[in-house]
Design goal:
alpha/beta; 585 residues; 4-stranded antiparallel β-sheet; 20 helices; 6-stranded mixed β-sheet
């Protein structure tokens, strides 16, 4: 089967567990039917021959055979579960590997919560499908065949009745399963949508509580819940009649026919033999029903495994689709930056078209402009976060793509507007910037970032844990820790995306001094919204709709009647604004 090829491709080291599980499942099916054969022998010895001693001896064989079949099924389950754990582990490893290699564009299109849930849920679903699918598949197809052979062995009459029951049961089963594949696709999609919307609802729970909103206020989540319930209920109703009919046909058939047959037993030549046939019909029809149910569950497991693997493979493809190809050059040839005929866009939305820009090394540049003008995108392209659609980005005269990933990571530091700190100590969060960093180096970085006051107030200093299991830092404190991390890295090129946005006025002076120290001898590109922070840079670049429309120092741009001068005047006017009418308070 194609699904097995898919599964085994992920676990070449453990596929032996799959073959072993299937073999044990077939053996367990044979043991189960062999047990029913000995049940038949017991009935013959007890009812037809009246030989109690022989029946007792056969009963022991029956018990041993059925026990052996159960143990083989249990062993089959152990083997399949070991295979399932290997599959789940390898899928998660591949997911983690994909996350580490994926471009920023992937994360722009796929929120982190959805990525985590897709990997976790589908890897878990694959494990569940593999663990139960193989043992059930072996029994689902082998047991009915061997049971039918046993039925004809008992009597031609019983065999014919079983064939009729299996055919009718199969037709009912087919009518119940006819739309299962389509339904399962709809069901899984509805479940996925409901789960994603629930995550968004929980993330916004603060807004929900503040405004007293309920689930009906979130139309997407409300519709997702109703769609899921509607599809599940409709399919359940469609299965109600055939499922009940199969149960009556295969489980209650002996009880149903027993009453009318009792009026005609005097016409049966060998009543004792007929009693044995009825008892065996009861056993074998029950086994046939269980086999049909296993086929149903196996088809569900097969679909779930295909669905889960398809989702994961699609995500893996998306992760690597825009993966940046790095080269082998380990050292930067210089710090001059050139954007040469660069094209880039987010999906169908272009940001840069034939974009050109030259930045000399060792200078400080400020990017300003309205939201959506391309400032952050330019900074991220320079940092190697995105794969460009066309053109070249050169550093030191060498295309960025020719440098190794290690070289780019070591020579370009990026300070985000919303810094990410891990659940660990402050020391660990800073030391991640430099492999093997010492306490003295981290302490110096904290001093240079004017952040000593943060650790002085903590119980274990810079070894204090932060996050869910430790203390919580304010937005400004997190930003200062991120700046200390960049200082420890000591990269040649520093990119700051409004790095001082969350800093209070009391620390702004200290930070400006630390920024000056950080910028010494480096090429610095800062994205700024507070225009007062860019007066002393070497050049200010005004961006608009993916183009640099103004460029120059503060004095040069103020001499022009352009965007920078107008926005600075507006900024100063806004800062000077005061509420003079006390009644407005």
């Amino acid at each position: 089967m194609a699904i097995y090829k898919k599964i085994f491709a992920y676990v070449p080291e453990a596929k032996g567990y799959g073959y072993l599980s299937l073999l044990l499942s077939v053996a367990s099916a044979a043991g189960l039917v062999a047990g029913y054969y000995f049940v038949y022998c017991v009935m013959v010895a007890l009812i037809q021959e009246g030989n109690v001693a022989h029946a007792m001896a056969l009963s022991i064989r029956t018990m041993m055979t059925l026990t052996a079949g159960s143990l083989l099924y249990f062993a089959s389950g152990i083997a399949s579960h070991k295979l399932g754990f290997h599959v789940e582990t390898n899928l998660r490893k591949k997911g983690i590997d994909g996350v580490t290699k994926a471009s920023f564009r992937f994360f722009d299109l796929n929120p982190s919560g959805v990525v985590r849930k897709t990997i976790d849920d589908n890897a878990g679903l694959t494990h569940q499908s593999v663990a139960h699918m193989i043992p059930d598949l072996g029994q689902a197809f082998v047991v009915p065949i061997l049971s039918l052979i046993l039925g004809f062995y008992v009597s031609i009459r019983l065999g014919i009745v079983l064939v009729v029951l299996i055919v009718i049961g199969g037709l009912l089963f087919k009518s119940m399963m006819g739309g299962e594949t389509k339904f399962m696709q709809i069901y899984q999609d509805a479940l996925k949508r409901m789960s994603a919307e629930t995550v968004e609802y929980i993330r916004g729970i603060q807004v929900v509580k503040i405004f007293g909103a309920d689930v009906q206020s979130f139309k997407a989540l409300h519709d997702a819940i109703h769609d899921y319930a509607k599809y599940a209920y409709a399919y359940s109703k469609s299965c109600k009649l055939p499922y009940t009919a199969i149960q009556w046909l295969l489980i209650g058939v002996t009880a149903i026919v027993m009453v009318p047959l009792s009026f005609y037993l005097h016409r049966v030549g060998d009543m004792r033999s007929f009693y044995v046939e009825l008892i065996m019909l009861l056993f074998i029809s029950g086994v046939t029903f269980s086999s049909l149910m296993r086929i149903m569950y196996s088809s569900m497991y097969i679909f779930n495994a295909n669905y889960a693997l398809s989702n994961l493979e699609k995500m893996y493809d998306d992760m690597l689709k825009d993966k940046i190809a790095f080269g082998t050059k380990e050292t930067f040839d210089g710090e001059d930056i050139v954007f040469s005929h660069v094209d880039f866009g987010y999906g169908d939305k272009p940001v840069f078209k034939d974009f050109n820009l030259n930045l000399d090394g060792g200078k400080t540049y400020a990017l300003i402009g309205a939201s959506g003008s391309g400032k952050s995108t330019l900074a991220k392209l320079l940092s190697g976060f995105y794969k460009i659609d066309g053109g070249d980005i050169l550093i030191g005269g060498t295309p960025l793509s020719e440098y190794s990933e290690k070289a780019v990571a070591e020579n370009i530091a990026f300070i985000f507007q919303d810094p990410k700190l891990f659940n660990g100590s402050i020391f660990d969060n800073i030391a991640v910037a430099k492999k093997g960093a010492t306490e003295d180096e981290v302490l110096k970085a904290l001093k240079d970032a004017a952040s000593m006051d943060i650790i002085e107030n903590l119980p274990n200093g810079m070894h204090t844990l932060i996050g869910a299991k430790g203390v919580y830092l304010s937005g400004g404190e997190k930003q200062r820790i991120a700046i200390a991390r960049a200082m420890l890295k000591d990269a040649k090129i520093v990119v700051m995306d409004e790095a001082s946005a969350a800093i209070d006025a009391d620390n702004e002076y200290k930070l400006q001094a630390s920024f000056k120290k950080l910028m010494e001898g480096k090429t610095v590109i800062m994205i700024a919204h507070r225009l007062t922070s860019v007066r002393n840079v070497d050049e200010i670049l005004v961006m608009e709709k993916g183009k640099v429309v103004e460029r120059g120092s503060h004095d040069v741009l103020m001499a022009k009647d352009g965007y920078y001068k107008r926005e600075l005047l507006r900024y100063n006017t806004a800062n000077d604004w005061r509420i003079n009418d006390e009644r407005a308070l």
